[in-house]
Amino acid sequence: xxxxxxxxxxxxxxxxxxxxxxxxxxxxxxxxxxxxxxxxxxxxxxxxxxxxxxxxxxxxxxxxxxxxxxxxxxxxxxxxxxxxxxxxxxxxxxxxxxxxxxxxxxxxxxxxxxxxxxxxxxxxxxxxxxxxxxxxxxxxxxxxxxxxxxxxxxxxxxxxxxxxxxxxxxxxxxxxxxxxxxxxxxxxxxxxxxxxxxxxx
Length: 201
Known about the structure:
By secondary structure, the protein is α+β, with helices and mostly antiparallel strands. The chain has two domains: about 1-80, SH3 type barrels (Roll); about 85-200, no CATH class. Helices cover about 55% and strands about 15% of the residues. The chain has helices at about 1-20, 85-115, 120-130, 135-145, 165-200, and strands at about 20-25, 30-40, 45-50, 55-60, 65-70, 75.
């Protein structure tokens, strides 16, 4: 009897939990389990259901397919968007472009400041060129300069910044440029040293 009562109570709590939440279904098919606080002309404001005391999030209505409320009712949003919604979306896109440009500039700047070309292959290139000849030395130079620096050698200072795609791409691209410059500078100097050794010998 106790087990039956326990089962009924547990089932009741589970059922209450399921139906006390709002579900926002995006046009991508993803569901957001939430507690909706406000629906404006252009967006839906909500809190995540597992953190009701946390921050309020918002999503554009143009990105939402349907909302199922805790009382069982639902709203379906059609494909068409009004002019105000389109303006908001365009503004958001413009802000994202500006932010990405800023992050890319910072990524490039940080790469110049922090990346020093550690383990770039410049040493192997120089040794091969001096010991064997520039013709042989060009092989490791091409091989090493064609690959981007590994994560262990990037020497970035902030792991969170590297999670931003614009920042990380700019950082890695600049680091790769620095790596190539170091390798080919090493190749040039070692080729000169090889030629000097040949003349001396």
